[in-house]
Amino acid sequence: MTKITKAFEIQKAIADDIVHGRRAPGTALDETLLAHAFNVSRTPIREAIRQLEMSGLVEARPHRGAVVCDVPPGRLDDMFSVMRELEALCARLAAAAMTAEERAALRALHEASAELVRGEQRDAYVAANDAFHDAVYDGSGNGFLAETARHVRFRLSPFRRAQFEGRSRLARSFDEHERIVAALERGDAVAAEAEMRVHLGVVRESVDAIDRGGAAATSPKPRRTRPARA
How far is CA 93 from CA 54, 99, 145, 154, 188, in A? Predict the structure, then answer.
């Protein structure tokens, strides 16, 4: 395992602890203790902490080093609102800009994830989910929009990853993706935008359902919204 991979895995583990409340706001991240806990040198620990700072979960404080940030619900609401608008715009543009080959590739990517849902392969589905959304970003034909969407998704990635701990969330996510793919295949920009908004709304609700003590509640039922008139 490379140092970069180690740092990423450590970053994911610490981020999951923060999201689930196992590392409370204000908790110091001691490099020496973490290196011992993860059985690594301090180099990947420093890189993991740097990534956590970039995601907004950790901040550097004078004389204390890195400490866990408090991420209040209002802050999450703001971040998810931006994410929802960015992804909805990506979907709307992709409905017109995607080539037949790109639509076919998205359909194949989506269908392949069905096996992950049936096998309840959470980690693999998380990766497939990222690939799905990347395909929609790229399908928008707007490179700056895709770059911005990825940046915001990175900030929210620990929370988006945690949603899949909810019972039946994998299957619900797959169904939501199906409606997005179908709208894109029809070239229906209004429906694609609306379905992506619904999808990101359910993601936000699923994050709210996380038990900060370490478990996850049942996934909420998606709230449908009517597509806006063109």
Answer: 29, 12, 10, 22, 10
pTM: 0.80
3-state secondary structure of 58: strand
Structure tokens at 53: 């700072």
Q: Class of the 3-68 domain?
A: mainly alpha
| Sequence spans of domains, the chain | 3-68, 73-208
Between CA 176 and CA 166 the distance in angstroms is: 15
Q: pLDDT by residue (tens digit) across 49-64?
A: 998 998 889 998 877 7
Neighbours of 112 (CB within 10 A): 12
Q: What residues have CB less than 8 Å from 124, skipping those under 6 apart?
A: 116
Q: Tokens 């928008």 correspond to what residue?
A: 140
* Chain segment 73-108, per-residue pLDDT in tens: 788 899 999 999 999 999 999 999 999 999 999 999
Give the helix/strand (H/E) hosting 68: strand 65-68
SS3 for 95-162 is HHHCCHHHHHHHHHHHHHHHHHHHCCCHHHHHHHHHHHHHHHHHHCCCHHHHHHHHHHHHHHHHHHHH
What is the architecture of the domain spanning 73-208?
Up-down Bundle (1.20)
> CA dist 154 to 1, 38, 54, 73, 118, Å?
22, 23, 9, 18, 27
